[in-house]
Q: What sequence folds into this?
């Protein structure tokens, strides 16, 4: 998104986009509900979890990326399979995509969280617990994943390179905003497509732009580049395939169904919802409306 802004892809499509950094996930979606912002770049599960009863479900209109190695599970070296986690102490950030990922793998192995001693920790705290051998495994993401798997007693048990299309980031908006501004979102999608292609052909320049805008632990372009090695960005054509059509659904439908089933089981889904309710088609139309002034924040 910062590449699209910095290199003029939004301006080329006639839209002005304000990118607002917000690390408070709940506050970001409260801002969307209140109409303070037009959309949030979040996780696919957010469209499900933050939809409210008696209101139109939130809409996933564009997929930004999926994680292909940026999320995973590190474990002590004597743990060689997901089945080996049974009875072990495993740390995971409750409510995060890591919890969804861990439970997806457990289900495939015929297990559930109840078969583990699950400890709710995030980020540095989870890393410290694993490095101090206070837990047997950790479901986590970059940059911690690389640090943990290199611990003398640890190894990478598995990562999301084996689960493409499962942990997905997307642009989420309200049904009202999408209905009223679909042409603007199509322009947004074309700009995004241009930025993804630019990033693929000019990675060093793209990493510099991202580092300059994000700062903090990602102020070094080299660190950005290393962090993005486990991330796959979806261009326009990949979005079309992942979404499919209502008559010929793409992979996103199965992923959203998994999300609904898992988070409903934990009481996190507040609205009666189906995949079709939160998957918005139309942004990747081949027609190109005339340029017009528009603003999205």
A:
């Amino acid at each position: 998104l910062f590449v699209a802004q910095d290199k003029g892809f939004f301006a080329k499509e006639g839209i002005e986009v304000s990118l607002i950094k917000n690390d408070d996930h709940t506050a970001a979606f409260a801002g969307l509900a209140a109409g303070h912002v037009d959309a949030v770049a979040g996780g696919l599960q957010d469209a499900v979890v933050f939809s409210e009863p008696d209101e139109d479900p939130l809409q996933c209109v564009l997929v930004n990326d999926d994680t292909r190695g940026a999320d995973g599970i590190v474990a002590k070296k004597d743990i060689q399979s997901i089945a080996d986690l049974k009875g072990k102490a495993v740390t995971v950030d409750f409510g995060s995509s890591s919890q969804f990922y861990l439970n997806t793998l457990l289900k495939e192995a015929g297990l559930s969280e109840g078969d583990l001693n699950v400890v709710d920790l995030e980020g540095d705290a989870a890393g410290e617990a694993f490095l101090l051998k206070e837990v047997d495994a950790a479901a986590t993401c970059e940059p911690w994943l690389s640090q943990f798997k290199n611990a003398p007693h640890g190894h990478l048990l598995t990562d999301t390179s084996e689960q493409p299309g499962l942990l997905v980031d997307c642009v989420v908006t309200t049904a009202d905003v999408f209905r009223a501004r679909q042409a603007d979102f199509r322009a947004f999608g074309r700009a995004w497509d241009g930025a993804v292609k630019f990033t693929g052909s000019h990675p060093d320049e793209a990493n510099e732009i991202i580092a300059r805008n994000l700062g903090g632990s990602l102020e070094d372009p080299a660190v950005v580049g290393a962090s993005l090695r486990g991330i796959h960005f979806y261009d326009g054509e990949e979005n079309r395939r992942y979404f499919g059509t209502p008559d010929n659904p793409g992979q996103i439908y199965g992923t959203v169904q998994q999300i609904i089933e898992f988070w409903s089981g934990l009481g996190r889904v507040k609205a009666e919802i189906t995949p079709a309710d939160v998957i918005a088609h139309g942004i990747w139309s081949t027609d190109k409306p005339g340029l017009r002034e528009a603003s999205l924040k």
In short: Residues 286-293 have pLDDT under 50 and may be disordered. The CA atoms of residues 162 and 281 lie 27 Å apart. The first helix runs from residue 2 to 6.
